[in-house]
Amino acid sequence: MNNTPRCIRQLNVDFNSEFALRLARPDDSLCAEVSCPCGNDIVCVLGYYVNSDAANGKQIFVGPLGMKCSTCSLESEIMDPEVHGYNGEIGSNTTMRGSGPRRTWHCPTCKNEWVRIAVVFSYQVEVDDVMSKRPEDYFDVFQLFAECYRCNGVSTVSLFDCT
Predict the structure, then answer these.
(1) Cβ-contact 140, 163 below 8 angstroms
(2) Quick one: how far is CA 90 from the chain centroid?
(3) First and final C-alpha spacing in the chain
(4) Domain residue ranges of the chain, discontinuous segments joined by +
(5) How far lies 101's CA from each of 97, 129, 161, in Å?
(6) Which of 21, 46, 135, 146 satisfies CB 3.0 to 4.6 Å to 102 for a cystine?
(7) What is the pTM for the complete model shown?
(8) Strands 43-51, 75-79: parallel, antiparallel or unpaired by DSSP?
């Protein structure tokens, strides 16, 4: 699979960056570094902190996910679980979605907000006739990773099961 999922088509997408290759997964996944359309790769990630029973009451970071560029201040969308991924494409509702003003994600090690990001899309769903026209949009797992510009730590920002 080499088509870019529609949720990140408006961003700069690099499947061959050092960061993306470092995070690369098995053949049933697609990994890319994403950055601002202006070309700058230093961004802050925007989303929502919610308490999760699945995470023993700990806060997790959920979508709709966006990013804000450190150079041009443009806010761009990354992924909305309500409309992207397998469930989003078939119109199935998601239970983990924030609302209201988004908050900035911070590095868990040094609390810095400026990062570069990569996304991983995983595909284990069997493709039917409807999906065959855009199989890249029917991912069943979405992961967002951040590499901190201050401490260089790599963290999982968000993980969505989209089925």
Answers:
(1) yes
(2) 19
(3) 19
(4) 6-161
(5) 12, 38, 23
(6) 46
(7) 0.92
(8) unpaired
